[in-house]
């Protein structure tokens, strides 16, 4: 008998929490995991997975158009939103079941309830009021969309959670934000035939990405018919007499839409979690502050995933969880490695990226070689679609290490995953050059750009 009810109590059944609980229980630890909603968290229930299914659904409109150039006549096509929602819900339920079974098979106790901290080693299970104790507590409650409460009429807007469950596909939607979620949903809704407007406060969407990718994607989206209004924010949302929404902007525009979606970032979901009772320190956005081993300022309490606001990505949460299990239960202190994380924006075309943007690399290194290719993908020759692929390799001129690769085009996310291995392994441009091309592919361009397109010296293009 230990002095605690559990070796580990996990609050939050998302990617980070479930992975930690499953691995720790598999190692014979006494583990409980509490989840107030559905197992799977943001990624499975209302994020990456349903989003990707929606992306697939939205791409068919272009596939049908492109088919003509290859001799196919697909006739009249129609889209049925309720069918997509029902099929998506069935798949999400299946995945949720897998998550639960994985926990059960490993021997973790599943608690379908909200849980809140009452002290450094104690938790209250809100459904029963019972208080339990644990040697270690992991907070993995993730984040939630910023509701933007200062905006008059914000309660009339939807966020990404609700976008997955709309009763009807809107005729017109206005989406605020220029990050991953706003951009991905703008492409999704447009592909489903919705009249789509994106409103962004900056000059160019996706502020943290390479400038070429941002410019290329924004132009491609506009060319498709997505309206993008930059240097604009909402000033007020109201419902008009006809029941439709009216989104007023700072620039004096009034946009009429059936749905207005806010995608203005996500906040750590720590409110009301009992952090004060346990003495856990948080940052300015409510994120749990942790050290390199994901430990909070309270020795017994750890946190992984979006709630720590380190890097808000599913694979990162899972990696942090696996490091934590090494640290706590395998006598192998491991700190998560947040360097060179490959990522994708599932826009249409996609962005796949790993490493530094040209702008960030120019600040870090004295001289860069930039290899850049822009071309029409082969499929577009017969489909007739006006589209471009952009590929860009950023090389530190001093040692010829590849410090960033950025792709805008079909399957860019898939390519980013493989490039992530190359860059993580520290490949140089010479390694890229002596790699044989796979022909005919788009990605062969990555190993056949032999001469720099331009150089950047002391931050200036030369
Ligand atoms: P992001 O942080 O990516 O983008 C937030 C956007 O909202 C930015 O364009 C930002 O502008 C803008 N914004 C923030 N505050 C305001 C404000 N007060 N007024 C006007 N605009 C504002 O957040 P998302 O919500 O899109 O996504 C959250 C996180 O989820 C991402 O950071 C990402 O890590 C993860 N995610 C990953 C995906 C993937 O891997 N494919 C998909 C979806 C989400 P500015 O740029 O000027 O700061």
Provide tags for this entry.
single chain; 462 residues; alpha/beta; FAD/NAD(P)-binding domain; Enolase-like, domain 1; 3 domains; 7-stranded mixed β-sheet; 7-stranded antiparallel β-sheet; 13 helices; 31% helix; binds NADPH dihydro-nicotinamide-adenine-dinucleotide phosphate
Kindly summarize this structure in a few lines.
This protein is of the alpha/beta class. It is built from 13 helices and 23 strands.
Write the layout of secondary structure elements.
Blueprint: E1 6-11, H1 15-26, E2 31-34, H2 41-46, H3 48-67, H4 81-106, E3 109-111, E4 115-119, E5 122-125, E6 130-139, E7 143-145, H5 160-163, E8 172-176, H6 180-191, E9 195-200, H7 211-224, E10 227-230, E11 234-239, E12 245-249, E13 254-257, E14 259-262, E15 266-268, H8 275-278, E16 301-303, H9 314-329, E17 343-345, E18 350-355, H10 358-364, E19 367-375, H11 378-383, E20 389-396, E21 402-409, H12 412-424, H13 429-433, E22 454-457, E23 460-461
Helix pairs in contact: 1-4, 1-9, 3-4, 3-6
Bound molecules: NADPH dihydro-nicotinamide-adenine-dinucleotide phosphate.
Structural overview:
This protein is α/β, with parallel strands linked by helices and 462 residues long. The protein has three domains: 6-144 and 267-329, 3-Layer(bba) Sandwich (FAD/NAD(P)-binding domain); 154-264, 3-Layer(bba) Sandwich (FAD/NAD(P)-binding domain); 343-456, 2-Layer Sandwich (Enolase-like, domain 1). The protein is built from 13 helices and 23 strands. The protein has helices at residues 15-26, 41-46, 48-67, 81-106, 160-163, 180-191, 211-224, 275-278, 314-329, 358-364, 378-383, 412-424, 429-433; strands spanning 6-11, 31-34, 109-111, 115-119, 122-125, 130-139, 143-145, 172-176, 195-200, 227-230, 234-239, 245-249, 254-257, 259-262, 266-268, 301-303, 343-345, 350-355, 367-375, 389-396, 402-409, 454-457, 460-461. Strands 1, 2, 3, 4, 5, 6 and 16 form a seven-stranded mixed sheet that branches. It is globular. The model has no long low-confidence stretch (mean pLDDT 97). Bound molecules: NADPH dihydro-nicotinamide-adenine-dinucleotide phosphate. NADPH dihydro-nicotinamide-adenine-dinucleotide phosphate binds next to helix 6 and strand 17.
